[in-house]
Amino acid sequence: MIYDYHQDDPKKCTATRLEKLHLAQPLYNLKQIPRSAIVLNPVSNITLSFKDRPLIQKYGLVGLDCSWNNAETVFLENIRGENRRLPTLLAGNPTNYSIRGRLSTAEALAATLMITGFSKRAKQLLEVFNWGETFLTLNREPLREYAETPSDRMIERERDYFPTE
Asked: What is the pTM of this model?
């Protein structure tokens, strides 16, 4: 599911494309987010891990699509659901190529699906973008490791791949 804040250029918006191709369900109101759905929120204190798989299976996965220029205010809202941040990954999209954490909505959803064991669905989302394979190639090892890492060791694993400077 995707809640779109309509802050991006619709021609470049990955969320819009996923919705048009019926690869994601649009949400028209934040109150439509199921209470126990996993909500991707980069400012969450809880890092996504494989243990979140049952919640995704039962309640769904929600991407919040907004401009990175407005992300600080959007993601600080009290958003229902089980908010999770992704471990650090590199963007494969042309706008933010190779920038840590600046993923498009499609990349964030696909990364979540890869980490939680839904790799076939993740690849299905990314194959509609000519840079989708680039994202997977850039992050092949971290995604594999993140999927195998217990939640209490995720920050340590993240630092192995992306040390702080």
From this structure: 0.93
